[in-house]
Amino acid sequence: MKRPNSKIPELALSLPTMGWLVVLFIIPTIVILLIAFRTGDPYGGIGDQWTVENFSELANPVYRGIMVRTVVLSVLTTAICLVLGVPAGYCLARAEKKKRDFLLLLIIVPFWINFLIRIFAWKVVLHPEGIVKNFLLLIGIVNDQTLLLYRPGTVLLVMVYSYIPFAVLPIYAAAEKFDFSLLDAAHDLGANWYRAFYRVFLPGIRQGILTAILVVFIPALGSYVIPDIVGGPGGEMIGNKIAQKTFIDRHLPHASVLSSLLVLAVMIPMTASLFMKRRKTVGRGIIPG
Amino acid sequence: MGDFLVFEGISKSFGELKVLDNVSLSIEKGTIFSILGPSGCGKTTLLRICAGFEYPDRGRVILDGKDITSDRPNRRRVNTVFQNYSLFPHMTVRENISFGLQMAGFDRSRISGEVDRYLELIQMSDQADKKATKLSGGQMQRVAIARALINKPQVLLLDEPLAALDLKLRQRMLVELDWIHDEVGITFLYVTHDQGEAMSISDHIAVMNKGRIEQQGTPVQVYEAPTNSFVAAFIGDTNFFETEITSIEDSYCRMNIKDFADGVIVYNDKNFPQGSRVYLSIRPEKFVISHAEPESHRKRNMVRGVVEEIIYMGTHTVFWVRVGDYRIQVRQSHDRFLLDEKIIEHGNTVCISWHADNCYILDRYDERDESLLTLPDDDVTVAPENIISAGK
Question: Which residues of B lie inside 8 Å of A (Cβ-Cβ)?
Fold first, then answer.
């Protein structure tokens, strides 16, 4: 069937979004990349010379540890969010309409409270005199000296807490569209529960899982507030270093170098996944390999 | 009858709703057994109980002498062809068909050989690497059948397998299904609401309504000798007459039908006693309609009426003939329609006659079943006097 002019409205419709992204996302990213190649000035501004010297900053051994920690914490956060989010999405999609609406509300309710306040709330909960600590003391799991706050584990806990709704919602959206009679079919053909889940359900909500990975992993990499509040020096992430370079050292080119590193860390897996998806949809033969 | 697959007193309720009420069936090995009924009669639930997706509140399912009532679906040697096929959308045709064998843990080369064989059976070898979602309805249907059959189930369950197809394709798939059945020879349990499908494919039919089996038998038995008004009206079309038996003559009985001038003689196979108030069912095609009075015969009943409506259907013509309060549907197939038949026209007074063996006294009658009958458009055929009385 011929659809006349189908290209033109498509373009017109996506133009506002494209404009928004270009102005508020692509241009600032390019500006940051450019600043990374400028000298700094003594007043915390940007100098007028081009240089590559800023990148020697990366040689500082302190970043290696922080970068590794950032990636490990982000990967773990994403993994835990998926492990918890997939069953949650499954249950939500299978729940009765009334119950489901209520559960969805429960997921959304925390968003009514400011993000910062929720992070601070964790500080209260995990405080050395706090309720969790006292309870764990009581049952003898920890001793008086144990710190619950200011360690990488705390950062992980709070990140999972913060990002899990972003994992659950796309997974639920995909699971809601999933045809559950396919699980019946899988059982009918001899699959036990686990294999039906793994071979039929997970591929069925693949798109939701990919979205969940993106919306958790990318913000997790750039986390700044969470490690800043509950992380302490042992829980620092690259976001904290960028903030430190910007606000304390007042050396924007150095901050830009670190930001570029982060952008690269996000772009590489994303481009790879995009490339893989393209190859799947375009089909074999067009892109060799 | 054999007892390869047996349902024994199955009852099932969903909340307040009683879906199956003490259903018992036994199905012979290697046959095509149909469960026929209107939507909501519980036939799909019965099938799901057999597949293991539901468990009955009461009763047992016995397959080949083994009680499988509480076995999980993946433990039963039963496979299902689902109404919407439920092919795995992320898999190709080949992957779909091989799924069952993979679950059973066969090695690769064996699976691939078997899949090739079944692809050939459904004539889709050239489509093996297509995604399941890219197939047409008929192709999906065939893949669904192959995917189920490859596991060599003891019983293949088919849940309205043709409902999603258009008429021509449905007829072709029906022939194909029958052919596949002859080829593999396993027992088919076929659930449908389409009486034409059930009649043409089955060795045996059970007619269900409101969670109960109304009647079971061969297609011929069910059609020719319905035991109650539901079966008579649901399968094919019929005319109901309310009457009383006035006398018994050997295996026949005489009865009076209101507005029928002469008494009517009917074969009394169920031995109703004299004086019973009964309902009579006569299929439209059992009547002979003619201008002239037919030769009278001891076992031939005849009544005069006026033609109210004529619907020409190509293979046959349907006449609606008014006899007193009754509007009788008569179906006449054409022998030499345009050559020397004297054509019956609207308003003609005609004789309709039928043989005493060609009608059935019903065990049970429910007035609501009349809604299943085809009736001509009421606006056209309501007689003037009826409009007046309705207006009062």
Answer: 51-53, 72-74, 78-80, 82, 84, 86-90, 99-100, 103-104, 147-148, 151
Specify the CATH class of B3-224 in words.
Answer: alpha beta
**Cβ distance of A187 and B90 shorter than 8 Å:** no
What does pTM read for this prediction? 0.79
Beta bridge partners of B20: B12
What pLDDT does B271 receive? 81
How far, in Å, CA of B193 to CA of B390, rounded?
Answer: 35
Q: A96, A178, A181, A188: which to substitute to probe chain B, counting the most B Cβ within 10 Å? A: A188
What integer pLDDT is reported at residue A111 of this predicted model?
A: 85
Of B23, B28, B66, B58, give the one whose Cα is nearest residue B42.
Answer: B23
Please give the residue that has the higher pLDDT: either B40 or B100. Answer: B100
Domain count, chain A: 1
Per-residue confidence at A5, pLDDT binned at 50, 70, 90? low
Nearest to B52 by CA among B63, B68, B67, B36: B68
Say yes or no for a CB contact (<8 Å) between B90 and A203: yes
Chain A residues close to B158, C-beta within 8 Å = none
Nearest chain A CA: its distance from B53 CA (Å): 7
Which residues are CB-contacts of B287 (< 8 A; sequence separation ≥ 6)? B328, B330, B331, B332, B352, B353, B354
Question: Would you call A189 and B89 a contact, using CB atoms and an 8 Å cutoff?
Answer: no
Which domain covers residue A178, as residue numbers?
65-252
pLDDT of residue B12: 93
Q: Identify the closest residue of chain B to A183 by CA–CA distance.
A: B86
* Residue located via tokens 């059976």: B121
Q: Which CATH class is domain B229-378?
A: mainly beta
Nearest-Cα residue of chain A relative to residue B86 = A182
State the pLDDT at residue B390: 36
In this complex, the residue of B53, B99, B147 whose CB is nearest that of residue A184 is B53
Cβ pair B79:A187 closer than 8 A: no
pLDDT, chain B, mean: 86
Q: CB-CB: which of B80, B89, B90 is closest to A188?
A: B80
CATH number for position A131: 1.10.3720.10
